[in-house]
Design brief:
With about 280 residues, the protein is mainly beta. About 10% of the residues lie in helices and about 30% in strands.
Length: about 280
């Protein structure tokens, strides 16, 4: 049992944050769902992926006798050792807002290598005035896109698992998929964002009415160049384009290639960022 307790001790990194930042309990909006995140580590490695059953409770005392709120017998999928759960006990919001003293969190888990009985981490304090409780609806709506210099791991540590890298992945079953009727988020890697035309007709927008989230390939505007070869039976350009007056039809014939210049793409000055999209 002592070995298991040491394993579950890693759950002390449980995060509790309001609106994407650390805030005092009284500043947590009453209508904001709260999401817990944590990690299960076994001998320095993440526990096996799978579904485990959790009890997640908040107490008003370190002896876990004054139950404040919480969820019990909750099936939670653990992936890469990480789990996330939004509290279904809605009374937690108001109780956390009105808490006048410290709170303690207790996490229990069972299943897989943990066995069929709940293993208790113990009771750990959440600092008296500051909570790491993340607001599920804080920081934007489903479908919002945010540019950041953070990696996905760093970004999710701050904003939560409802945000992912906009890399074209399958998000079937998410609120994004239900709302937009598309199981795949847009792939924004290496591309620029552009405002939707929305029937703009002053000639300053996109001449094509592209759908939201639709990819548009690179192109350059339609144009032409004038060509004026030198006179004479065989005149040419320094770049290798040659004009010959001996064509049977009596017309000049241009052939050859201009010199090559430039890089692999046409681009404006830019700074590289990651684009994240909210899916839940």
């Amino acid at each position: 049992m002592s070995d298991v307790n040491r394993v579950l001790g890693w759950l002390a990194v449980l995060l509790l944050v309001a609106a994407g930042s650390v805030a005092r309990a009284q500043e947590v909006p009453a209508d904001v769902p709260l999401t817990y995140q944590g990690d299960l580590i076994v001998n320095g490695s993440p526990i096996a992926d799978g579904e485990y059953t959790f009890n997640i409770r908040l107490y008003g005392d370190e002896n876990a006798t004054q139950l404040v709120c919480g969820d019990v017998d909750v099936p939670i999928t653990v992936t890469g050792g990480r789990f996330s759960h939004t509290l279904q006990d809605r009374s937690c919001r108001e109780k956390i807002r009105t808490a006048n003293s410290g709170l303690w969190v207790q996490v229990q888990a069972r299943g897989g290598p943990l066995g069929g009985s709940y293993v208790t981490l113990g009771v750990h304090p959440v600092s008296a005035g500051v909570y790491a409780l993340r607001a599920e609806t804080g920081g934007g709506a489903v479908g919002d896109i945010v540019a950041s210099l953070l990696t996905e791991e760093q970004f999710q540590a701050i904003r939560g698992p409802n945000w992912i890298l906009a890399d074209g992945r399958d998000v079937q079953g998410s609120a994004f998929a239900q709302l937009f009727g598309n199981n795949f988020v847009p792939d924004l890697r290496g591309v620029f964002l552009r405002g939707k035309q929305n029937n703009r007709n002053d000639g300053k927008g996109n001449p094509n009415e592209i759908a939201l989230g639709e990819y548009q390939a690179d192109a350059f505007k339609r144009h032409q160049h004038g060509v004026a070869p030198s006179a004479g039976p065989e005149a040419g350009f320094a770049t290798g384009v040659k004009a010959a007056a001996s064509d049977p039809a009596g017309q000049d014939v241009l052939n050859g290639n201009t010199g090559e210049a430039g890089e692999e793409e046409t681009r404006p000055q830019n700074v590289t960022v990651n684009f994240f999209i909210r899916i839940n």
